[in-house]
Every structure is written in C-alpha cells, then in structure tokens.
Amino acid sequence: MTAAAAVPRLFGDAFATAPEEAYAALRSAGPVAWAEIAESVHALVVTSHRAAVSLLNDTATFSKDSRRWAALNSGDVPPDSPVLALMAFRPSLLYADGAEHERLRVALEDCMARIDIHELLETTQAHADRLVSRIAPAGRADLMVDFADTLPLLVFADILGCPAELAVRMVTACQGIIGAGATAAQAAADFAHILAELIETKTADPGPDFTSWMLQHPAGLGFEEILHQLYCFVGAGTIPTAAWIASGLRLLLEDDAYAGDLTGGTVTVRRAMEKVLWTRSPMANFSVHFARRATMLHGVPVPPDVPVLISHAATGTDPALPPGLGYDNRAHLAWSAGPHRCPADSQAGVIAQTAIETVLDRLWNLELTDPGVPNRHGPFHQCPVSLNVRFRPQPADARAAAPTGGRT
Ligand code: HEM
User: Fold this and answer.
1) Is there a contact between 31 and 299 (Cβ–Cβ < 8 Å)?
2) Which ligand 1 atom is nearest residue 338's CA?
3) Among 73, 93, 107, 366, which residue has the fewest nearby CB atoms (within 10 Å)?
4) Which residue among 342, 356, 382 has the greatest number of ligand 1 atoms within 8 angstroms of its CB, and so is best to mutate?
5) Does residue 48 form part of some domain?
6) Tens-place pLDDT, residues 3-43
7) Which among 165, 159, 236, 216 is positioned nearest to 194, based on CA atoms?
C-alpha cells in the first residue's frame, strides 16, 4: 500500500456524522486520493466528477474483477472486514468485464424489461399502505425501521415470485444483512439458501416472475449463475432504494423550501428525490474498479490491483461542477456511468416515489422528531440511522392485519 500514514477515514462515527469533511480532505489531496474505507483497508477514492466519468468509461484500463485485489490476495485485508461483503468477488455481473458482463447484463435487463411498471406501482402501493396502516394508530414511528428498510424487500419478494413463507424468511435474512451486526454473515448465508430454494421451486413450477424469466432466458444461465445474479439484483437494489426513500422524506420534512410546498404533490416529491441524487447520493462510495496496469488518472498515479472507488456522493457536490447547474438534470453519478451504470433507475424511481407519496398522503401533520441524525456506519451507503416522526394518530385499519408480502 502506498497510501500516506494518515488519510481520511470513510467509516466510523466522524464519517457518519460529517461525511463532507472527509470528502473535502480527499479533494484537497487531488481528484483521486487515498482513503481508509474500513479498519486497515485502503483504497483510492475519486471525488472529481470529471475524473470519475473518465474512469467509468475506460474499460481498457480499469476492470471490475476484485480477484485482482493485491492486498486481499496477500492476506493484508482482515478476513472479517465488513467491506468484503460487497467487495469480495462473486460470479455476478457486478464483478464481470467485457463479453461476460454483457452476457449477464443482457439477461438481467431483458428480464427487468418484463416487469410491468403499473403492476410494480400497484404492488408497492399495496405494501406501503399495509406498513403505514400498522404504524398509523401509534402517532409516532421510526420510518427507517418500520417502513423504508422493509418496503423494498417486500416489493422484491413479489418481483422474484416468492411464495409467502419464503418471502417472510427473505425479508428476515435481508434485514439481518442490513443490520450489519454479529449475525450478518449467517443472514447472508440464509439469504443464499432462500434464493436456491426459490430457484428450485420456479424450475419445477414457473410463473410470471423475474426468477422464472431468468431461468427461461435464451442466454441459458445455470443454477449457480442465476443464484448469483439474483443475489446481486436484490442486494444492489434494496438498500439504496431504502436510503433514497429515507433521504427523500427527510429532505421533504426538514427543508422549508419543500416542506412549505407539500401540497405541490408529485412534482415536489420528484424534485426532492432528484436533489437527493445530487446532494445525498444513496450509494455514497462504490463502483469499485482495479487498474489492469500502472496508470495515471487526471494526473494522479494509480498502481495496478488496488481498489479505486467512485465517490458518487462527493462527485455530486464537486465544487468544480458548473455554477448554477441546479438539480433538475441527470448529469449526477448517483447511478454511476458506463457499462455498469445501474440498470434499474426507473424501477427504483417508481418504488421510492410511491413509498414517499404514500407516507405523505396517509400520515397527517407529519413532523421529524430527530433532525440532523448521522448516517449509518460504513463507506458504501448514505442512509440516515433513523427517521423518527410524529403525526396525528389514526384509528386502527383493517389493512394493517393483512399479511405483508409474498404471493400465496
Ligand atoms: C429497483 C432497485 C434497484 C435495482 C434492481 C438495482 C440493480 C442494480 C444492479 C443489478 C447493478 C449492477 C449493474 C452492473 O454491474 O452491470 C446496479 C448497479 C448500481 N446501482 Fe442499482 N439498483 C437499484 C437501485 C439503485 C438505487 C436507488 C441507486 C442509487 C441511487 C443505485 C445505484 C447503483 C450504482 C451506483 C451502481 C453501480 C455499481 C458498480 O458499478 O459497482 N441502484 N444496480
């Protein structure tokens, strides 16, 4: 590792409380600079929007294959490091290059194109309504735990065609992964078992769902390949969508520019969601790449086989962006760019917008009771630790009793 002794840390309390301070320190060291992303794990992090666009489109120089990671191969990364959950190689499209990436990506995109957007909206609406009905009588809730974390999981269980019992287990396992506590590794293993069961079920009895479509796709993906793509699909999809819902709601409730205009409905919600993508990117630092050989990125030497992360968060607040750019354009890198750009921006938008609108429609006199909370720990996601609110309590509603999630 050629990093200087003390470099900004993208984990821990200080980073969770004031991430912009770490990004400012990184920027002052150059368009790409060393950071510590977990205890004793170092990486280069790109904070310049222009340098990030260059890297993300230069597949000849940069690879996504984390089997190249020299420090991991030499045993210099602690084997229990929390970053390994997302950075260690899996045979999914996220870590694939070139023709192999294209093959997996086309299969995933073709199957995603079969998700009916109106059905997605209705499914999201139904789950959101049930979750809100459960909290409505209390007059207070932590919308992070009681709503934002759970809703995308319920929607994904439906997209995958999970039978009800499997959906409940999937939600529990994924909540264990999100919790990132002592049981996270067990929860990840449980999740893989659940996906294997689901693929077996759909092989025997296909339905109009994403899992069956992947099994039937002409690319001819095998059992293990489908399992890894589904793992990536759910893993890549649920946590940032939860973060987008939470940060969107938080902005709408705490910023007077929006709070005063909530009667503006959909337009106001969408504007707040777009602003979040610039100012509080749900994926904070990700898009891990490895240089195939020693190279330079915008004047900075990049050694081969060290992780280079894109700071989706810092590139959105890059002071070198043109002044007056505003938030109503899509030039941000919250979805990344290049061949690994998120394939699901429209689906994620439907889920997040429906979620936010349901909360605002159903819970009246909604007020934040914990303004200014820090983010959850860790370098990858940008998500508030909590979203405590109070609102006018409502009588119990029959919708609350209905089961949450899964097909019967
Ligand atoms: C329906 C919800 C979502 C699904 C199904 C989904 C799925 C995926 C998948 C499969 C990839 C890997 C693409 C590849 O490697 O070719 C990906 C990448 C990515 N997604 Fe999403 N995603 C969702 C929501 C989001 C949200 C809300 C954000 C943040 C605003 C986001 C940001 C990203 C980023 C930054 C990448 C690039 C990762 C990398 O290059 O390593 N995604 N997404």
Assistant:
1) yes
2) 40
3) 73
4) 342
5) yes
6) 446 899 999 999 999 999 999 999 999 999 999 999 999 99
7) 165
> What beta strand segments (E) does 140-272 contain?
140-142
**How many angstroms does the Cα of residue 298 sit away from the middle of ligand 1?**
26
Whole-model pTM above 0.85?
A: yes
Q: Whose CA is nearest to atom 19 of ligand 1?
A: 342
Cα(335) to centroid(ligand 1), Å = 7
Residue of the nearest CA to atom 13 in ligand 1?
340
Q: Is 6 a member of any domain?
A: no
Contact of 310 with 52, CB cutoff 8 Å: yes
The answer to the question of residue 2 being in a domain is no
**372 Ramachandran zone, left/alpha/beta (phi>0; psi -120 to 50):** left
What CATH number does residue 124 fall under? 1.10.630.10
Q: Which residue's alpha carbon is at the smallest distance from atom 40 of ligand 1?
A: 287
For ligand 1, atom 24, name the residue with the nearest CA.
237
